[in-house]
Amino acid sequence: MDGIFPLIYACLGYMLIFFFFLVLACVKCLVKEINVNSSNTHAFQGPLRPLVLGGDHSISFPVVRAVSEKLGGPVDVLHLDAHPDIYHAFEGNKYSHASSFARIMEGGYARRLLQVGIRSITSEGREQGKRFGVEQYEMRTFSRDRSFLENLKLGEGAKGVYISVDVDCLDPAFAPGVSHIEPGGLSFRDVLNILHNLQADVVAADVVEFNPQRDTVDGMTAMVAAKLVRELTAKMSK
Ligand SMILES: [Mn+2]
C-alpha cells in the first residue's frame, strides 16, 4: 500500500501541471478572439470571466488590461501576495513579475487596489503604493485588519472585481511550492474567509507563482493551488 500513494500523487501532480498549460492555452485563444471581435459588440453575449493560472505573476498586467478594456472601465483589484509587485522596474524589466501592479495602476485599469498578505516590501514598494493610492495591508497588522479584510465589499461603481492570488500569500507551512518563500503569511483559512465573505461581482481572477519544482514530493502546494482555483471558480460563477 505504501508504494502506490506516491505514484498516485505524482500522477495527480503531473495532471495538474498539464491542466495549467491547457487552461493557459485556452485563455490565449480567448484573448485572441476578443481582439478579433473587439469591433463587433454582438460577437459576445454576457461577460467574459477568465481565470488564469500560472506561473509568473507578470501575466496579471495583460489580463487586467484586457478585462478592463473589454468591460470599458477600471475594475477593483484584490491582490493576495507576500510582495506588492509594484516596482517601477525589476532588474531593468518594466514587465517583470515584480512590476505588474505598477503597470496596472499607471494604465488606469484598476480603480482600487487592495494588497493583502504583504510581508516583504521595500521603501520603493511603499512609495509606489502611496503614489498610486494602493491600500496595502501588511501581515504585521493582520490581526488588527482581519475583521475588515474578512468582510470586504468591492467593485461598486467599478466594472467589477479582479482577484489575483499569488500562492506565496500563504505561509510556507501551507504552500511551500513557491519561488519566493516568506514566512509569517496567511493561513489557508484566512484566505478562504476573505474570499468567502467578499461581496463582489468577480469578473476575472488569476492564481499564480505555484512552482512545482519547489513543492513537496506529495504535491501539497499543487493541491492547495487547485483548491484556490476551485474556490475562485465558485465565486465567479455566482
Ligand atoms: Mn509574491
Could you write a compact summary of the structure shown?
It is built from 7 helices and 6 strands; from the N terminus they run αβαβαβαβαβαβα.
What does this 3D model show about the protein?
The chain has a single domain (4-36, 50-236), classed as Ureohydrolase domain (Arginase, Chain A), CATH 3.40.800.10. The protein is globular. The protein contains seven helices and six strands, in the order αβαβαβαβαβαβα. The protein has helices at 4-37, 60-71, 100-106, 123-132, 142-149, 188-197, 220-236; strands at 51-53, 75-80, 110-118, 135-138, 161-166, 202-208. Residues 39-44 have low confidence and may be disordered. The protein is α/β, with parallel strands linked by helices. It has a six-stranded parallel sheet with strand order 1-6-5-2-3-4, with helices on both faces. β2 (75-80), α3 and β3 form a beta-alpha-beta unit. Residues 81-83, 166, 168, 180, 209 line the site of manganese (II) ion. Mn(2+) binds at residues 57, 81, 83, 85, 166, 168. Catalyzes the hydrolysis of L-arginine to urea and L-ornithine. The latter can be utilized in the urea cycle or as a precursor for the synthesis of both polyamines and proline. Possesses agmatinase activity. Catalyzes the formation of putrescine from agmatine. Belongs to the arginase family. Agmatinase subfamily.
Radius of gyration from the CA trace? 18 Å
How many runs of DSSP E, i.e. beta strands? 6
CATH homology superfamily: Ureohydrolase domain
CA distance, first residue to last residue: 41 Å
Shape: globular
The description of the largest β-sheet is:
6 strands, parallel
> In the CATH hierarchy, what is the class?
Alpha Beta
Give the second-level CATH assignment, the architecture: 3-Layer(aba) Sandwich
Helix content: 40-55%
Q: Count every helix, treating DSSP H or I runs of 4 or more residues as helices.
A: 7
Oligomeric organization of the protein chains = single chain
Q: Strand order of the main beta sheet, please?
A: 1-6-5-2-3-4
CATH topology: Arginase, Chain A
Which molecules are bound in this entry? manganese (II) ion
Regions with pLDDT < 50 over 5+ consecutive residues? Answer: 39-44
* Helical/strand content category: alpha/beta
Bin the strand percentage. Answer: 5-15%
Total count of domains? 1
pLDDT averaged residue by residue? 90
Protein name: Arginase
Transmembrane segments: 6-31
Binding site for Mn(2+): 57, 81, 83, 85, 166, 168
InterPro entries: Ureohydrolase (IPR006035), Ureohydrolase_dom_sf (IPR023696), Ureohydrolase_Mn_BS (IPR020855)
